[in-house]
Amino acid sequence: MAEDTRTATPAGANAAQGALPRRGVFWRFAERSLKLNRSRTIVSIIGIALSCALITAIFTSVATLYEGLLKAEIVTEGAWQVELVNVPEDEIDAVHADSRVTRSYDRISYGDAIMPKSFEGYWGRYLSVQEWPTADKVKGLKPLPHIAEGRAPQAPDEIVLTHNLKGLTVEDGSWLYDNLPTSGRDDDVPRASWDGGLEIGSVIDLALGERTFVDAESGQEAPCLYDESLYTTESATGDVISEYLANPGEVKSYKVVGFYAPEGVRKDDVWGRTGPGHLGFVSSPEVPVRTTSIYLTTNLKSRTEIDGLIEDYTGNPHAIFNGGGNRDDIENMEGQTAAYSHDSLMRYQGMTDDRSIWGTLYTLAFILSAVVIGASISLIYNSFAIAVSERTRQFGLLSSLGASKRQLRRTVYAEASMLAIIGIPIGLLVGLAGTFAVFTFAGEGIGMLIDQEAFAKTGFSTIAINPAVLALSALLAVITVFISATIPAWRASRISAVDAIRGSRDVRLSRRERREMRKDRRAGARGTSFGRIFDDLRLRAAGVPGLLAHRNLTRASAKGRVAVASLAVSVALIIISGGISHYLNYLTQVVDNGGSDIEVSLNRRLELDETTSNGLKEIDDAYRALATVDGATGEGYMLLTSLCASFEPGMIDYGELSSQSDHYDMPDRGMTDDGTVYAPASVLFLDDASWNQILEENGLDRKRFGDPKNPVAVALNGTQSNDGKRYSVRDLFSSTGTANLLTNIASVDNAMFVEAGVDDGEPVARYEGYGEGDEARFDENGEPIYDKVARPLDEVLLDSYELPVGAIVKTFPSPIKAYASIWPTLVLPVSALPTLAASSEGIIDDKDVSSLATPFAFHSEQGTYGNTMYAYLSFGAEDARAVEIGMNEIIADKITGSKWYRTYLSNNAENARAERLIGETVQLFINCFILITGAIAVANVFNTLTNSIILRRREFAMLKSIGMGQRAFWRMIALECFSYAWRGLAIGLGLGAVVTFFIYQAMMMSFEGLGFVVPFGWVIAAVGVVIAVLAVSTAYALRKSSSGSIVQTLREDAI
Predict the structure, then answer these.
(1) What's the rounded Cα separation, in Å, for the pair 872 and 883?
(2) What are the residue boundaries of the ABC3 transporter permease C-terminal domain, all occurrences included (predicted)?
(3) What is the DSSP letter of 33?
């Protein structure tokens, strides 16, 4: 019979159809069914709302993260989309008047000056002078320069310089840059000059001109862009500068009124470096404008339109640099004007073709949404399937009254529509509210996750409400609902009226179950039925309730599997959440290097008239000056020296030392035939307070270990190592003894000392270099080729120091933890350094001599850079960020200049706080996802169990009518629940343990000694959730099913 064939419609049905349209009748029928089954309806609405809420939260979070990336890019790099470089004067007004341009800023350059001869290198040749940018002029297109010291220029003869130049003299450039020869075309141009070190109030003389490139083949000249790298050509002796400074103006004097630098050490300076040199700012000087570059934003909506604007002004169909720099494009420019494009900004604005980040996050969002949809379909499908099963007779009667299969399906879809109409808006609101709550609660951590510098002060607590995202979330929720309703609707349309009224479809055995029954009957005839044997055992062990419980579970196996699967998912999610939390906590603890809140690293170079004691005094003065910052507490300082040493037989655990070579892909250092070990070593020189703390905490004699003229070292065990792949803890020392520090090793031609080792049982000094001519050579993979030379150590060892090692300790101040080496580490008081360095005071080191060869030679010629005194200063901080700002001001004022080769402040407290916030934020997102998916699974259990029990009311009434007591009844129900519980727990615990094991394996790739753990507390929580869900579901269902008398329940046949 065709599906749409109608039977005769009864008069009552005609009357009903006369009152309401046919579609309205079935809609009203579905509405009434939902009202009569409120618990199932509420659970279904909750499931739809949770599904929609989580999908909304996922996509809203992704949209918000993109909004955050866009804001961070604007904060750190500016809002400009295009920079037109070298715009001709007659085109500047046209750019500003262009209807496509919404904001613009003119970056005016007054030219470049040649720095002193000592700065003649790849990165230091020029000082570019530009107009000081103000907020009114820049209009948010670029972050403004930060004045670290002094003030902005106001008069025409005032200048602000980059902080990198502070304290430098005209002779100080060569220890920063490799000197390069020039073409000689600008040898007569006056170079920048000043007296002494550059400070506030210094006067610098500049002759500004134009950087001009000369093509080596054609001889043609072209102006350089203001931030192009230095043009060089190759020659037989190396690179030669092939550009020169053309059209220099007369020398003018400028007074230094300030120095600018990034506000934080983690922040890049978007103004400071311009190609091969430095940048200075002036205000309306009395010199001509050399070039003008224009930063601009547009009202254009696509990258194609942006490229069209660029082509209009440059003649090129795209930006030359595209955020990087392409020398070939520059040299082949058709016109004078070039262009930068702010690709990273336009990527977040959705205007570029590079969608890798978009694709990654949205792919992840769709994957997570697929998981949610899968869990939700199970819940909503069960709700509809139970509803259809519960109303089998109703659908049979409707079919007998003439309802077509299509109309019966429409009834189920009508229920789905009503549930979606209610649940989806609730889900959208809950998803947005939940996302807002999470971003508000974890705003600071989310800000750190997006960009630590951009949101360090404000955090990130706003969410992006995108109509397209909401529409997509609603659409996915609708698809979820109607997929869930499809199979129940199809089943409802296939119900036979006679079978439905007789109830013959209420209990139907599967093909497998029928096959098993036939097998049991045949086995019973032979007397070998295992089923009957097991039934007898169940009857004896658990009585009639146990046997009935088993029969019920077998009969309703599909519903049981749904309940068990949902419980297993809930348990697995709880265990996985616990595993993630456990290993994230371990990660936070281990990665913490134990350093202080604030650490300042100093590199102090000794001049020829200074001694090691002079350098120590200045380092101590710097430490005390920094400790005066409000909120800072000095926690000591240390100097670190790396060298090679030999250790008496038995001092070093050679197996442990060799494992370091394995982990770090280095050759084994070696042990001589008599057991003497040669290896790299570190010597830490501690301030007096830190040294006395080690002695006191380890019960060491202060008199024995406190004589700076006859130092006795302490060896460290329990040091942490990280080879870039894994973390581990090492005990390298086995006993005390004497360490022979190799303090002066002779150099050899064309090679540099790299290590001391053992060859054929004898100690050797190893050297590496480029060989004859000392010119770099490379293999086919671009790797440098070194000549390796070994010399007997006794032939090249010029001096050494025999250092007694009097104790081995594992307890030492926390700041030392960060600097204890992977190789043997020895500790001494800082007052002992002059004693160890006494024989090296007369050695003049330079950059061509390895610091390992002369580790205590801290002197170098003026204008050269050799070895330095490496010092690390540690401080506690109440407000780490405020202390960082205060210390940077002192560093800029006092700890700068040629003596201080490099000074770097590390805000460990802020970094650790950022890492902790990021970890907590990731954990929060994971927990939220697990919580909601777990809630969907729990709702599925509740819905399945309650409705399956309610549908068994007639069965329960039958059992009570034949004499089953309340105690036996509860025992039967308890055994059924126990079966669900143990199966759900077993599967869930197993699944959770497997996923946790994979997490453990991932962690083992980075951490040694980590144990596999399934957190016991979370297992208890999972057991508690299972018991609670089963107890609540069963109690609610029994209360609902126990209303009414036994006789009334058994006679209940009508709709």
Answers:
(1) 17
(2) 367-496, 928-1043
(3) H
Q: List the Cα angle 513/514/518 in 5-degree steps.
A: 115
Rounded to 5°, the CA angle 641-643-648 comes to: 120
The residue that leads in pLDDT, 473 or 774, is: 473
Helix (H, G, I), strand (E, B) or coil at 234: strand
Query: Residues in the chain, how many?
Result: 1055
Q: How confident is the model at residue 237 (pLDDT cuts 50, 70, 90)?
A: low
CA–CA separation, 339 and 293 (whole Å) = 9
What residue ranges in 891-979 does DSSP mark as E strands?
900-907
Of 969, 689, 984, residue with least CA distance to 830: 689
Alpha carbon distance 4, 18 (integer Å): 21
* Residue spans per domain, the chain: 1-78+355-506, 82-341, 556-595+908-1055, 606-745+797-898
Q: Which of 10-19, 470-479, 540-549, 770-779 has the lowest mean pLDDT?
A: 10-19
Sign of CA dihedral 721, 724, 727, 728: negative
Greater model confidence, 203 or 786: 203
CA distance 677 to 368: 56
Residue (of 971, 976, 979, 986) closest to 1023 by Cα position: 986
Q: CA torsion angle for 372, 374, 378, 384 (degrees, to 10)?
A: 90
The first and second tokens of residue 1000, run together, are: 């453990």
**Residue from 202, 182, 184 nearest 192 by CA:** 202
Distance CA 106, CA 83 (A): 10
**In the structure, how many helices (H) and strands (E) does the chain have?**
30, 31
Name every residue whose Cβ is closer than 8 Å to that of residue 60 and which is 6 or more positions away in sequence: 431, 432, 435, 463, 464, 465, 466, 469, 470, 473
Hey, which residues does 232 pair with through a beta bridge?
241
Q: What angle do CA 572, 575, 580 make, to 5 degrees?
A: 120
Q: CA torsion angle for 422, 423, 424, 425 (degrees, to 10)?
A: 60
Tens digits of residue pLDDT in 141-154 = 998 888 888 999 99
Q: How far is CA 867 from CA 427, 515, 651, 858, in A?
A: 65, 87, 29, 5
In whole angstroms, give the CA distance from residue 658 to residue 653. 9
To 5 degrees, how large is the angle CA 85–CA 91–CA 97?
105
CA angle 257, 276, 136 (to 5 degrees): 45
| Coil/strand/helix, residue 601 | strand
Residue 67 phi/psi, 5-degree rounding, is -60, -40
Tokens representing residue 440 in the block: 């508000």
**Mind listing the pLDDT tens digit for each residue in 272-299?**
555 678 899 999 888 899 989 999 999 9
Residue 850 has a pLDDT of 64
Q: How many CA atoms lie within 13 A of 406 on its CB side?
A: 7
**Residue 803 to residue 828: CA distance in whole angstroms:** 10
Would the pLDDT of 130 be above 70? yes
Q: Are strands 210-214 and 221-223 parallel, antiparallel or unpaired?
A: antiparallel
pLDDT band of 661, cuts 50, 70, 90 = low
Structure-token match 């020895």, residue found: 826
Flag whether pLDDT at 997 surpasses 80: yes
Residue 733 β-bridge partners = 652
C-alpha closest to that of 637 among 830, 502, 462, 444: 830
Average pLDDT over residues 800-810: 94
Nearest alpha carbon to residue 806 among 710, 695, 705, 719: 705
Model confidence at 633: pLDDT above 60: yes
Q: How far apart are CA 438 and CA 924, in angstroms?
A: 8
Task: For residue 809, list its beta bridge partners.
Answer: 716
Mean pLDDT over 781-798 rounds to 82
Radius of gyration, alpha carbons of the chain: 40
Tens digits of residue pLDDT in 941-984: 776 677 666 666 666 666 666 667 677 776 777 777 777 778 87
pTM of the model: 0.60
